[in-house]
Amino acid sequence: MSVNSPAMKAASHESILARLQDDIDRLPNALARIAKYILENPEKVLHQSVAELGEFAASGEASILRLCRQIGFSGFRDFKLALAAEIGRPGLPPTAAGTADSALQSLHDTMAQNLSIAHNNADSETLAKVAAALAASRRIDLYGAGMSGITAELLAYRLLRVGLTAFAFRNSNMAHEVASGLSPGCVAIGLSISGLTVDTVQFLKGARSAGALTVAITNRARSPLEKAADFTLQASGLQDHPIGGTLTSTIGKIFVIESLMLALGKAMDKPVAK
């Protein structure tokens, strides 16, 4: 593809990862799954074929090519070349004092923005309803993949501290097997930043089929996970590019967890343990 071609001009106007991040909430599910995988694993994508990417993103090769064209590339090869150039730029700033201070300020601003978005998304009525269900539940199962799995364990810990029976799973097979024991009076909570993680969506669907009340904690309100949930607690937006597994995208979820614990304290009519 020529550097002067319309496709390259369109692609170079905005970084690839920024474009995918901006568009993911409006993409069809198949394309959104591909975008999610690319955003979370940009370095891996550089070494994958179309078929391999399709397998890992649970989407067809035609969908991958469609996404490439939608963001301004003639094909997957051109897309990978541009992505390589983008993430090949130095990821860490020089250690000069001024530049380091600027990088720390940028990190602070990102985390503060995520916290602010989570606060704006907080719905007291929904929090109260979920808290009431948790307070009355006989069992709470939580599932999340990757970083969301770690967040699920943090929420399970907080629930255990107030005397509730909570189990967090990061292994999808175990989560699905154990979920068969759920029934009315139980609560299942699925955590996913993108709301597109297939195993997490299936976990909530299975729990709902068993009669459990289902809750989604996600950064993407309109998503397959939201459709599988009786209640959705939205954390931050999808601004982050999680290269290297940064923790900034979890800040909003931590706020949601602590907001839920405040509501749970009221529902249980006693202070929440700290």
TrEMBL record:
* Name of this chain's protein: MurR/RpiR family transcriptional regulator
Q: Name one GO biological process term.
A: carbohydrate derivative metabolic process
Q: Which molecular function term from Gene Ontology is one that the record holds?
A: DNA-binding transcription factor activity
Tell me which Pfam families the record gives: HTH_6, SIS
InterPro entries to which the protein is assigned, alphabetical:
Homeodomain-like_sf, HTH_RpiR, RpiR-like, RpiR-like_SIS, SIS_dom, SIS_dom_sf, WH-like_DNA-bd_sf
* PANTHER family registered for this protein in UniProt: GLUCOKINASE, HTH-TYPE TRANSCRIPTIONAL REGULATOR HEXR-RELATED
At the top level of its lineage, which domain of life is listed? Bacteria
Keywords (A to Z) from UniProt: DNA-binding, Transcription, Transcription regulation
